[in-house]
């Protein structure tokens, strides 16, 4: 059985180096003939670069068995590596970057089949400065640019209980239903974050408030920094090692 696990992991990893999309499809196909426990072992045999390649190229409109089975720590690590796979048009365009990061985080978080796993992922992301900022990108304009929408009642709902300026939710499901927030709306994901891990929502707001700059400039600066940090993490011997002085340019 160990031999089967190792052969399967090697096959997927080799394919991912050539064609990540095919590796993703191959993993989904193999999943039909293996148990979840076996698949978890296959995932554990893969390095973080391979996992990032596969998840970055997966069709995010479809469920991913790999994403469901990865640990919160593995998900955090692929989030930190994913900027290496940004296309130039994404890195250089604030709107594109917000949409891309929103789609990727929605794909990773909403696919989970229970609230406890979603909470664990969010809290794990918040422990790493790079991962926390990646998670924050979809909400930069929403938080620093003010609430959007023409309905005053909806804007009132988004007022933060502390400063009455930034976005906030008191009840995720009630707000989604009352204001018809779809899963492709960043406000819906922010509502889910507040419901699952309110401390993470506060960390997002605190990080962005402390930047004190134009939101488009912030995105540009952090996009460059995230790519640099991803490269540094990819080069260290220990793929899970911490990178010192993360985001020192904000000091």
Question: In words, what does this structure look like?
Answer:
Helix 1 (2-18) crosses helix 3, helix 4 crosses helix 6 (72-81) and helix 13 runs antiparallel to helix 14 (186-196). With 251 residues, the chain is mainly alpha-helical. The chain has 2 domains: 1-70; 88-145 and 173-235, no CATH class. The protein starts with a helix and ends in a 16-residue tail after the last helix. The protein is built from 16 helices and no strands. Residues 147-179 and 237-251 have low confidence and may be disordered.
Radius of gyration: 19 Å
Percent range of helical residues: 55-70%
**How many strand segments?**
0
- What profile does the largest beta sheet have? none
Assembly level: single chain
Give the SSE string: HHHHHHHHHHHHHHHH
Distance between the termini: 51 Å
Low-pLDDT regions: 147-179, 237-251
Provide the number of structural domains.
Answer: 2
Helix-strand makeup class:
mainly alpha
């Amino acid at each position: 059985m160990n031999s089967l696990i190792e052969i399967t992991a090697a096959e997927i990893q080799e394919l991912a180096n050539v064609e990540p999309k095919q590796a993703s499809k191959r993993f989904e196909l193999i999943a039909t003939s293996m148990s979840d426990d076996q698949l978890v072992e296959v995932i554990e045999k893969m390095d973080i670069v391979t996992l990032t390649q596969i998840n970055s190229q997966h069709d995010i409109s479809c469920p991913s068995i790999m994403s469901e089975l990865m640990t919160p720590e593995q998900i955090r690590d692929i989030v930190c590596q994913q900027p290496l796979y940004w296309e130039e048009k994404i890195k250089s365009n604030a709107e594109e970057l917000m949409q891309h990061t929103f789609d990727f985080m929605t794909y990773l978080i909403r696919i989970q089949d229970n609230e406890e796993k979603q909470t664990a992922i969010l809290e794990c992301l918040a422990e790493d400065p790079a991962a926390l900022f990646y998670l924050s990108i979809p909400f930069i304009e929403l938080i620093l640019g003010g609430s959007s929408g023409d309905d005053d009642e909806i804007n009132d709902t988004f007022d933060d209980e502390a400063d009455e300026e930034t976005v906030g939710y008191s009840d995720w499901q009630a707000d989604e239903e009352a204001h018809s927030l779809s899963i492709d709306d960043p406000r819906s994901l922010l509502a889910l974050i507040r419901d699952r891990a309110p401390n993470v929502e506060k960390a997002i707001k605190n990080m962005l408030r402390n930047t004190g700059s134009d939101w488009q400039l912030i995105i540009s600066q952090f996009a460059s920094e995230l790519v640099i940090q991803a490269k540094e993490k990819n080069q260290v011997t220990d793929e899970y090692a911490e990178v010192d002085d993360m985001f020192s340019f904000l000091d």
